[in-house]
Each structure stands twice: as structure tokens, then as C-alpha cells.
Design a protein that fits this description.
Elements: H1 10-13, H2 59-76, H3 82-100, H4 105-111
Length: about 110
């Protein structure tokens, strides 16, 4: 009996994560947002996301995110994962930027030394 370990082939390691079946036809595109309407406020909930973005944060920032997640669960009976919490926070920041521009909290915080 051979003790040699069988490793996966490169094709197995670098395969697409989506299925090879044709995707169902997409729903008709939603109407463009009316003038003055916010588009940044829309976020996704618990769905499989096609895109990924890696963000490096400090251990203190991660701790604060986890504390917020636990507070949402404890105080507001909202069981959310960290990804959803972060997507919502980003949506809020982008909506504030769109609405307030120069006076948005995002601009103000990014200008801090």
C-alpha cells in the first residue's frame, strides 16, 4: 500500500465557483431611480454574493464590529452576520455622502488626520 498522498490537480484548485449550468434569465432590469432618489441606500441581505472585496482592519475595529453585532442581537433581537452589518454600514455612509456631499460624515472622517 502506497503512503503517497494524492493532491488535487490545478484544474480542481482553480475552478470557477459557479455552476457550469446556464443561469436563469434575469428579471427585467428595475427602472432607473428617479431624480433625487437615493440609490446608495439599497443593500443586499442574505444572498449569495458574486463579488468579493478584502478589507484589512485592526483587531480593535473587528472587536467593535463584533460588539455591534452582539448588541444588535441582544438589544434589538436582530441576528445578523458581520458581512451584512458591514454592507449596511457602507450603504449608510454612501447614502450620507450622496445626500450631504462635502458635509457628509464620511468626508469629515476621511479628512481627519
Amino acid at each position: 500500500m502506497s503512503r503517497r498522498v494524492s493532491l488535487p490537480a490545478a484544474d480542481d484548485l482553480f475552478r470557477p465557483t459557479s455552476s457550469h449550468e446556464p443561469a436563469p434569465a434575469p428579471d427585467p432590469a428595475p427602472a432607473a431611480p428617479e431624480a433625487g432618489k437615493k440609490s446608495a441606500g439599497r443593500t443586499t441581505g442574505r444572498i449569495r454574493h458574486d463579488e468579493k472585496m478584502t478589507v484589512y482592519i485592526s483587531s480593535d475595529e473587528l472587536f467593535e464590529i463584533e460588539q455591534a453585532r452582539l448588541a444588535l442581537r441582544r438589544d434589538h433581537k436582530l441576528a445578523v452576520d458581520r458581512g451584512r452589518l458591514v454592507r449596511q454600514a457602507v450603504a449608510l455612509a454612501l447614502a450620507d455622502l450622496e445626500e450631504h456631499g462635502e458635509d457628509s460624515q464620511l468626508v469629515q472622517r476621511l479628512r481627519e488626520p
